[in-house]
Design brief:
440 residues; alpha/beta; D-Maltodextrin-Binding Protein, domain 2; 19 helices; disordered N terminus
Length: 440
Amino acid sequence: MRAAILATLVLLTAACTEAAPGPPRQSTEADIALSGPVSITLWHALSGAQQVALDAMVKKFNDTNGKGITVTATYQGNYTQLYGKTLAAIQAGTLPDLGHAYESHVADYARTGVVVDLGPYKDSPRNGLTKQSQDDIYRGYFEANTFPQFGNKLLSWPFTKSLAVMYVNDDVLNEIGRPVPKTWDDFEATARAATKKDSLGKTIRYGFGFNSDATYFDAEVVARGGNLMAADNRTVAWDGREGLAVLQMHDRMSRDGTAYTPKGNDWQTDLAAGKLALYLSSTASLPFVKDVAERSGASWSIANLPQTDPAKARTVQFGANVAIFKSTTQKQLASWLFVRWLTETDQTAQFAAISYFMPARASAADSQVLKDYWARVPQGKQGSDLIKLSSPESNIRGQQEIRDVVIFNMIADVISGKSTPDLAITAAATKANQIIKDAQ
């Protein structure tokens, strides 16, 4: 009840600032001051170089925040393991103060009532962000963390964001005399031209590599002008003509031998070795492609997906965010101050430069640290330039099962020839809509 009242106050405050002056904004627990030292814990799923990058940011915050806040960042395994541990912690009442989570995970957590509404914190006169500062954060990130099923509350904050992009072996495209494809027709033609066989008829280079992850199906749907969900968020919309066109293209390319399914991350070495021309993946793959390409001497780039209408280019953004779990008002405020700090211009630029995730703010592009990184790795800028064209995937309850099971199997069945595109998409949409209905 209290959360609903706070959310209402925020909406009323926003409405008043856009219209005639109204009564003073009522104070909430988001407007308090810290009364003493506070220790908070973040559970996360970052490993390797990305964990090193996070640890450096945490140390910087602990050393400089001047408010007595101490953050401890604890690795809890990959995202699936972290999700399972967080669900167990909810049941046991042993949650951390902050949790690294995909939107679909946050939706499951929020259903139990343990997630803090960040709207009052964002808009707090004392601890929040100015309108100018809020406008500097990419709008799609706010959309991703605003949950229609929970009264459009802001239940998480952008953290490790990525985009769906196309990786291109420029050497192959130069060899066949074709530019980076801008439309889907050009894409298929380029894949055909890039596919190469040896004297015995064995394919030694493919034009395209299939990626059965749901994110890239979603990205192809929006790049064709489609939507992922119906306006009321009660049924999927990817089963329309755009989604069908994606599966039909996959079916054609599988049948004509211009595409294959790489095992695991083999696509990275195949791309660098000139055995693969085009592949759809995350901007988070950049450092791995960079390493193998440098060893092989390959020229490569990042581009947006082909489009039905290049003048209205789109892609999807994804990646995990940070949710703050309900505890004490002091810990919640300290947690907010930490995540707010992480997305300030200097910090988000520094984190992007060392972690390869996307910056949270447009102003980060003016940061020297990011300019220096882009000078070394121009593909980083190629990816970042696409943020403004991105929109989030669905954050409804049940989305994780839809992604991991329904869409994945739908794509796999079409590529393998087990199902036709029209039958596969109809069956998948039926299953997805039932999952959404059951999760209400």
